[in-house]
Specification:
- Helix 10 crosses helix 11 (about 300-310) and helix 11 crosses helix 12.
- The longest helix is centred in the C-terminal third of the chain and has 17 residues, at about 320-335.
- Helix 3 (about 50-60) links the parallel strand 2 and strand 3 (about 65-70).
- An eight-stranded parallel beta sheet has the order 4-3-2-1-9-7-6-5. Strands 8-11-10 form a three-stranded antiparallel beta sheet.
- The protein contains twelve helices and eleven strands.
- It is of the alpha/beta class.
Length: about 350
């Protein structure tokens, strides 16, 4: 039975926040979604094998889609980095990639096509079919692909489990993005109206001064883009994805040390709690979040527990930027995985019970 059904498709990287956030999700939630995991070396690991260990620790043995994180760059000569660069080689990389996929039974492969010959693309698909896990064409809109070959393979394998992921990258909602996706969708739907698609992207902000003192919240543009496209493509197999409230590595941080900040996701927006003028620390930012009316509808998951413990000055709550990010990602994953379903009420506040 295909895994490519109507469900949530979050894109996650091999970074501390995403791995911790996934690890702390209930197992039932991990089984409902189908993560797209972008593989890269784990921290400063010597061996690439540590990447697979952290994925297993965080997600377990549930099926995941895997691709290469092409935003990861390193000139290091560590074996993990050398192996990663070998995966990107257009001649030898595809074979190494499929060997990697084959050795992990829960990995569903994205077919590598950038700079890859027609024969090597076909060979990957042949191996994927023998593995009987399905296969994915993941297209990042900022890159150039030979769509003729991809269309050809898709049209020749309509009986196979194939998914097309259209990732528009990082940026706020725009008509240009929606037009590009619509054009690609129209092209593929000419092959078959039974094809399955995921539309994904990232829009979590890079700067936060405009959100000081709850001046405004940040709408989740990924939802707005999906909703707009759904009006046209909702009758097809058209599924929602996002970057789990993160962004590609290229857009990560940099510059001066960020102010303490708590980000509280809701189904359609991110509420940013920070104050430069009033010099909020993590405890006060968390306390301010727990005073919001939206807090009453929070899901009872690890991330909200981390915020509540910080607000109450209990041990183990959010006290660092990485912990705040992991908490946000954890809440966001849960809410998008259950989008459209009522969140169980937190109920009246009684004696504190640690959910962790």
């Amino acid at each position: 039975m295909t895994e490519f059904t109507k469900r949530y498709y979050p894109t996650v990287c091999i970074r501390r926040a995403e791995m911790k956030a996934m690890e702390k999700l209930p197992e039932s939630e991990k089984m409902k979604m189908l993560p797209i995991v972008l593989l890269a070396p784990w921290l400063n690991s010597i061996e690439f094998e540590n990447t697979h260990r952290i994925v297993k620790k965080s997600i377990g043995n549930t099926p995941i889609i895997v691709d290469i994180d092409r935003y990861f760059t390193s000139d290091s000569e560590l074996p993990s980095r050398q192996f990663f660069r070998s995966l990107l080689d257009p001649d030898k990389g595809p074979s190494l990639w499929m060997d990697l996929v084959e050795s992990h039974q829960n990995y569903i492969p994205c077919i590598q096509t950038l700079g890859v010959t027609r024969d090597n693309i076909y060979r990957q698909v042949e191996i994927a079919i023998t593995l009987k896990r399905g296969f994915v064409f993941r297209l990042e809109l900022e890159r150039e692909y030979d769509l003729e070959i991809i269309n050809e393979i898709v049209s020749e394998n309509l009986s196979q489990d194939c998914l097309i992921v259209l990732d528009y990258g990082y940026g706020d909602r725009s008509e240009v993005i929606e037009m590009k996706i619509s054009k690609l969708m129209d092209r593929f739907l000419q092959i078959s109206t039974d094809l399955r698609f995921v539309v994904s992207g990232a829009s979590f902000p890079n700067s936060f001064s405009e959100f000081d003192d709850f001046a405004e919240s940040k709408l989740i543009d990924e939802r707005l883009i999906y909703n707009n496209l759904f009006r046209r493509f909702g009758n097809y197999n058209f599924f929602y994805g996002d970057w789990a409230s993160t962004k590609p590595r290229r857009y990560d941080g940099g510059g001066s040390k960020p102010l303490p900040r708590i980000d509280f996701p809701t189904p359609n927006s991110w509420i940013i709690a920070r104050s430069k003028e009033n010099e909020w620390d993590f405890q006060l930012a968390a306390e301010m979040v727990t005073r919001l009316p939206e807090w009453q509808d929070r899901p009872m998951v690890w991330g909200t527990g981390m915020i509540e413990k910080a607000a109450k000055e209990l041990p183990g709550g959010v006290s660092t930027g990485p912990q705040a990010i992991a908490s946000r990602v954890n809440i966001h994953l849960y809410l998008q995985n259950n989008f459209g379903n009522p969140t169980p009420s937190a109920g009246p506040q009684g004696k504190w019970v640690d959910p962790i």
